[in-house]
């Protein structure tokens, strides 16, 4: 009996891209998208092409950032798949940027040599994608951070694990076919309540469970999941990536980078909190001084030194 391979966390970017972005295993990504979005029958998508994610580069700040995956379906629709493990300012606007950029990228010229012409001096014909041919674009963002119960970064936060946001016309419902061209779906991993593998009822639940718990799956749980052909293929691919020394090295480097980034964010938040508390104490001390309270009493009430209070006079 061979030793069981410790599985890597799919949520880490280098694993996520390799796991879902393998062209020879596109049925894994198809299964994930169809399950999470609840697409059935004729609505199910088939991936025709993996697009270059570098076209979706964000240059607002350095270093540049790219989307994790971008694909085109057989019906011509576009799907952007993004994994985000920490919150950051403007997360909602970043999703809108991706949607808009992918949509407008389609308006471009394509040059080709006319088939009927054998004369190399003939001018190349010019073909442009028509406005009516612009494809639907759907961004699927998987997030692994806590959102507030109300509104966070402009994104309304409801109780569902999977939330889809559509752009709807304010006045006439007859224009919904236009506004339906852009959609954004958020898969909130933090909202998913873990349960035993044998209690998972749908492919959507299984996929979210694997995303949340891949490193902790026991051997018997893996074998149970592998009874389904698609999850057998998925777990075997993850085992292959997890056993690859190069992938493991990149994985560990990515985790260290993420920890460093989170440490910087937490330090900045602590500093902001500390400065906010200090400003609050100074405001209270200023008020108490105006009311004529002795410096020693103000010091006890605010925690400020006598010198700091005297400087407010």
UniProtKB/TrEMBL annotation:
Pfam assignment, any one: PDDEXK_2
InterPro entries: RpnA
Highest taxon in the source lineage: Bacteria
Protein's name in the database: Transposase
């Amino acid at each position: 009996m061979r030793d069981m391979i410790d599985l890597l966390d799919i949520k880490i970017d280098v694993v996520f891209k390799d796991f879902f972005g393998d062209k020879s295993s596109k049925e894994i990504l198809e299964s994930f998208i169809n399950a999470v979005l609840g697409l059935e029958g004729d609505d199910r998508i088939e991936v025709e092409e993996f697009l270059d994610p570098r076209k979706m580069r964000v240059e607002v700040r350095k270093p540049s950032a790219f989307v994790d995956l971008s694909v085109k379906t057989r019906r011509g629709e576009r799907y952007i798949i993004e994994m985000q493990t920490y919150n950051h300012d403007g997360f909602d606007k970043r999703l809108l940027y991706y949607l808009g950029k992918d949509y407008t990228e389609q308006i471009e010229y394509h040059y080709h040599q006319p088939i009927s012409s054998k004369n190399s001096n003939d001018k190349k014909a010019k073909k442009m994608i028509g406005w009516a041919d612009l494809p639907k674009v759907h961004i699927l963002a998987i997030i692994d951070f806590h959102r507030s119960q109300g509104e966070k970064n402009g994104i309304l936060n409801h109780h569902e694990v999977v939330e889809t946001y559509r752009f709807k016309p304010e006045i006439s419902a007859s224009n919904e076919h236009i506004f339906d061209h852009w959609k954004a779906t958020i898969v909130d991993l933090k909202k998913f309540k873990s349960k035993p593998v044998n209690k998972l009822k749908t492919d959507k639940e299984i996929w979210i469970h694997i995303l949340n718990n891949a490193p902790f799956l026991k051997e018997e749980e893996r074998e149970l999941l592998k009874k389904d052909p698609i999850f057998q293929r998925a777990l075997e691919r993850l085992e292959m990536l997890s056993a690859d020394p190069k992938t493991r090295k990149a994985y560990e480097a990515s985790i260290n980078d993420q920890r460093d980034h989170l440490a910087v964010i937490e330090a900045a938040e602590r500093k902001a909190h500390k400065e906010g508390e200090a400003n609050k104490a100074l405001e209270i001390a200023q008020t108490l001084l105006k009311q004529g309270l002795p410096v020693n009493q103000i010091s006890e009430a605010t925690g400020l030194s006598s010198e700091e209070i005297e400087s407010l006079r």
